[in-house]
Design goal:
The protein is of the alpha/beta class and 309 residues long. It is built from 10 helices and 10 strands. Helix 2 crosses helix 3.
Length: 309
């Protein structure tokens, strides 16, 4: 098919039908969910394919399977519709002069981070009556995408994502200083050491995150010592990485904010290289979102963690 740039005739209803079809992969189920006929669903998908010039579904065993292009499109359209919904709600609140709200996203990495941000949000709500804070937990790179899509107002991420923030021309500031750190499971022979630096990791197998910015940060860190990191496998989420870190004998180089990963079977070694928690926000952020950003910065002005118990 040839790409057709004229998409002005596409309706929100067509977009919702398409997104649902990608999710359930069955036109009959889509019809039941949306109270339409299966033939109407099929005609809608065909119309979208003709309008966009993109093959959206293939059929195997009589079931429609979304193409790779369709999956990508459905993800973007879901974010777009979510942003549209939020903009309508925001306009309604402005018109009614009602309470404001902030949608905040932070890295889903540890129980300590949950507690840290939970206390911050509670304190902000107490000092800003009438402002509601809604939370979305996700991974670093994804948070920036959601921020740029307009789904989030303010995010917390890590220093490793600064290059991507700059690339997207996203506003950001440092919230608080941390340290780079090495996490070593008991199964690894380095677990019994009292201290480590990156030179001790020469020849060691690492695991990492599926992020170009993380990979660049890690390579730059090792390059200072004339080394190249040997990453045997990368994971899409921090939680997945931590789960696998506990199971094997691989090492992870990350941020000391995750020091609550430490246990009888996991040790953290601080590195001299500094890291930081980063706060980023939308260019068109509301006054409430900017107040929330400043509240986070004011709450954490010092090096963290100052010590490890």
């Amino acid at each position: 098919m040839d790409y057709n740039a004229d998409f002005s005739s596409i309706t929100v209803q067509q977009m919702r039908i398409f997104i649902t079809a990608v999710e359930v992969k069955n036109y009959t189920k889509v019809a039941e969910i949306m109270n339409f006929t299966p033939s109407m669903i099929s005609k809608t998908i065909q119309s979208l394919e003709n309008t966009l010039g993109i093959k959206l579904f293939t059929k195997r065993s009589r079931e429609p399977l979304p193409t790779e292009a369709a999956v990508s499109l459905a993800e973007d359209w879901s974010l777009l519709l979510g942003s549209m919904q939020r903009s309508i709600e925001k306009a309604s609140l402005i018109q009614q002069n009602r309470e404001s709200r902030v949608v905040f996203g932070f890295v889903d990495c540890s129980e300590r981070m949950d507690a840290l941000m939970g206390s911050t949000i509670s304190g902000f709500i107490s000092s800003h009556p009438g402002c509601h804070v809604h939370v979305e937990k996700n991974d670093m790179h994804r948070l920036i995408q959601l921020l740029n899509y307009g789904t989030l107002d303010v995010i917390q991420t890590w220093y490793t994502d600064v290059a991507y923030l700059d690339e997207k021309l996203t506003e950001w500031e440092k919230a608080f200083t941390t340290s780079a750190a090495v996490f070593v499971p008991r199964r690894n022979h380095l677990f019994g050491r009292n201290a480590l630096d990156l030179r001790d990791l020469s020849g060691e197998s690492l695991i990492g995150l599926q992020s170009e910015t993380y990979s660049s940060w890690l390579s730059a860190l090792f390059h200072k010592y004339g080394l190249v990191p040997d990453v045997s496998y990368s994971y899409s989420t921090v939680r997945s990485l931590f789960f696998n870190l506990r199971l094997g004998n691989h090492i992870f180089v990350g941020d000391s904010i995750d020091y609550d990963w430490c246990s009888d079977s996991m040790k953290m070694f601080l590195l001299p290289e500094q890291s930081a928690s980063i706060i980023a926000w939308r260019r068109d952020a509301s006054p409430a979102a900017l107040d929330f950003k400043e509240y986070i910065k004011a709450r954490y002005p010092v090096k963290y963690p100052a010590s490890i118990d």
